[in-house]
């Protein structure tokens, strides 16, 4: 543990070790492996092509994004955030967990519902992780220690906010709207973004195999980076669990509850979980929930409502939906099941 994140070499070595473990696991289970559904392969979207000056190239990649959103609800994004920025952010998080002691970190234990930085330690059968949650936007909050944290994480948020606006444009277009639609509808210039920085123990140190239990996340979408592959699993439309192995130079994007609500269920927010079974070493991830502005009322858009598609979700402000299940804003817990309108004939 003292050696974590010494640099690229360490990053590559850990990934190699984990991918060997996965290979071993896959080779050792029965021949049903050939039945793994190739259609479950997580799509990759090239961010730069969404804005290509070549019309055909742009149209093709927007179509690809449309399929990824509708048929998966999650995808890898390349050429969005530079690898050096991602590595810098992961190093900042690793420094936070390594260069501070637990007493210093517990300074951020829940104080009041309006906390803008919150720390927690979960170590029981249902959840195994240490986390730091911070409000990243519209105002960036960060712990004062270590000194390296503010700049490294801030750089990731700055770049990711640009990518968020770009994805909002592209997704508005594929939904059939003008490109500023989502940006205005969610008032993204004041969008409420919360970042969860997670440290998961290796499986031999955890109290059970669950890192984070099954859930969906509120908001427009979640961007996720991790220092080693393995752990995060997504439930596909077809009901299969797929493991998120983020390729180098990519980040992972998962559509959130409020895009599902806005699109009246055309795009889905997918259930996911973190399983520690194959973790030989600890793992760091950063899941940033990019949300609408807290005061924005989110309801199914008229374009997605007709006689055969009545509104399937109740509308309310983003803030109300975050507080609906008794959580604080910074907890960013899903309340999607409470917002669904039961189907009636
Ligand atoms: O750590 C991960 O891979 C996922 C974490 C997550 O789903 C969350 O924080 O909402
Ligand atoms: Fe999540």
Question: What is the compact description of this entry?
Answer:
The chain is an alpha+beta fold and 345 residues long. The protein has nine helices and 14 strands.
**What is the CATH-assigned architecture?**
Sandwich
Shape: globular
Order of helices and strands: HEHEHHEEHHEEEEEEHEEEEHH
Q: Main beta sheet: strand number and arrangement?
A: 8 strands, mixed
Q: Tally the beta strands.
A: 14
Overall domain count: 1
Reading off the top of the CATH hierarchy, the class is best stated as Mainly Beta
Question: What class, by secondary structure content?
Answer: alpha+beta
Q: What amount of the residues lies in strands? A: 15-25%
CATH superfamily: B-lactam Antibiotic, Isopenicillin N Synthase, Chain
- The CATH topology turns out to be Jelly Rolls
Roughly what is the average pLDDT, rounded to an integer?
90
Q: How far do the termini sit from each other?
A: 57 Å
| Poorly predicted tracts of residues | 1-36
Helix content: 25-40%
Describe this structure in words.
Helix 3 packs across helix 5 (148-174). The protein has helices at residues 8-28, 55-72, 83-99, 102-105, 148-174, 181-185, 257-262, 318-323, 336-339, and strands at 44-46, 74-78, 117-124, 127-137, 193-200, 210-215, 221-226, 232-235, 241-243, 250-255, 272-275, 283-290, 297-298, 316-317. The longest helix has 27 residues, at 148-174. It has a single domain (40-338), classed as Sandwich (Jelly Rolls). Helix content is 31%, strand content 22%. Strands 1-2-10-7-12-5-4-3 form an eight-stranded mixed beta sheet. It is of the alpha+beta class. The structure holds 2-oxoglutaric acid and fe (ii) ion (FE2). 2-oxoglutaric acid is lined by residues 196, 198, 212, 217, 224, 231-232, 272, 274, 285, 287.
């Amino acid at each position: 543990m003292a050696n974590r994140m010494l640099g690229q070499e360490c990053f590559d070595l850990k990934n190699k070790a984990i991918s060997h473990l996965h290979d071993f696991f896959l080779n050792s289970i029965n021949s049903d492996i050939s039945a793994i559904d190739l259609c479950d392969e997580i799509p990759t979207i090239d961010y730069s092509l969404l804005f290509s000056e070549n019309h055909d190239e742009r149209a093709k990649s927007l179509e690809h994004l449309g399929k990824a959103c509708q048929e998966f609800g999650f995808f890898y994004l390349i050429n969005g955030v530079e690898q050096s920025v991602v590595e810098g952010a992961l190093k900042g998080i690793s420094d936070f967990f390594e260069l501070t002691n637990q007493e210093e970190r517990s300074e951020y234990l829940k104080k009041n519902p309006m906390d803008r930085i919150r720390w927690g330690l979960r170590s029981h059968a249902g959840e195994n992780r240490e986390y730091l949650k911070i409000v990243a936007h519209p105002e960036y909050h960060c712990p004062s220690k270590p000194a390296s944290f503010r700049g490294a994480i801030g750089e990731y948020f700055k770049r990711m906010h640009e990518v968020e606006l770009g994805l909002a444009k592209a997704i508005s277009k594929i939904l059939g709207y003008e490109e500023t639609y989502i940006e205005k509808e969610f008032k993204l210039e004041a969008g409420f973004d919360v970042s969860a920085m997670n440290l998961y123990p290796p499986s031999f140190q955890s109290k059970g195999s669950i890192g984070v239990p099954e859930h969906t996340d509120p908001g427009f979408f979640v961007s996720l980076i991790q220092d080693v592959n393995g752990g995060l699993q997504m439930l596909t439309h077809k009901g299969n669990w797929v493991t998120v192995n983020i390729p180098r130079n990519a980040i992972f994007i998962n559509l959130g509850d409020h895009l599902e609500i806005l699109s009246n269920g055309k795009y889905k927010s997918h259930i996911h979980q973190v399983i520690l079974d194959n973790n030989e070493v600890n793992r760091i991830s950063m899941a940033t929930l990019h949300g609408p502005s807290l005061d924005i009322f989110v309801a199914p858009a008229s374009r997605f409502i007709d006689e055969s598609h009545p509104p399937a979700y109740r509308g309310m402000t983003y803030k109300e939906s975050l507080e609906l299940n008794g959580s604080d804003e910074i907890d960013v817990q899903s309340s999607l099941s409470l917002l669904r309108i039961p189907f009636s004939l």
